[in-house]
Structures are given as structure tokens and as C-alpha cells.
Write a structure and sequence with these properties.
Helices cover about 50% and strands about 30% of the residues. With about 70 residues, it is of the alpha+beta class.
């Protein structure tokens, strides 16, 4: 599952990088994916929306086993 998640993150990464941000896969625990937002995404007030409506939505669409995506520091 880790490889699948990484592939999907690689798909969304260009849009994050276009705004000066990035995302790093930290770990997966059951159906919960833990990521670290980096660059401009780290302190952005919209980062929760990016995380839930962007990254989490795409991961859930492409990998049904994903239950949620959580950000870690």
C-alpha cells in the first residue's frame, strides 16, 4: 500500500510545488496516512483544506483502503 500511496502523492505533488509547497509520506497505520506538509504549505492557512479536499480526496478515490489523511509536524 505504501507504494500506491507514494504514486498518488507523486501525482498531486506538482500542484503543491507550483505554489511553493510539497508533501512527504511519513507513515501509514491501518487506513490512516500520515504526511508532512512542507515549504509554503507548512504555514499556509489553507493547508487543512489542501490536506482534506485535495490530498485525502485523491487518495481515497484511487486507494479505497485509505480512511483518512493526517498531517504531522
Amino acid at each position: 500500500m505504501k507504494e500506491k500511496v507514494q504514486e498518488v502523492l507523486d501525482q498531486v505533488r506538482p500542484s503543491l510545488q507550483a505554489d511553493g509547497g510539497d508533501v512527504e509520506l511519513v507513515s501509514i497505520d491501518g487506513g490512516i496516512v500520515y504526511v508532512r506538509l512542507q515549504g509554503a504549505c507548512k504555514g499556509c492557512p489553507m493547508s487543512q483544506m489542501t490536506l482534506k479536499m485535495g490530498i485525502e480526496r485523491v487518495l481515497k478515490e484511487q486507494i479505497p483502503e485509505v480512511e483518512s489523511v493526517e498531517a504531522v509536524e
